[in-house]
Amino acid sequence: MVLTTAIHAERTEENLTTASRLFLALMKHDDGARSLLLALPEVFPWVRHLDEEEMRAFTMELLEALSDAAELGAREAVHRTLVSWRATARINADPAQLKEALRPLDGDDLGPVEVHG
Question: For the whole model, what pTM was predicted?
Answer without folding.
Answer: 0.71
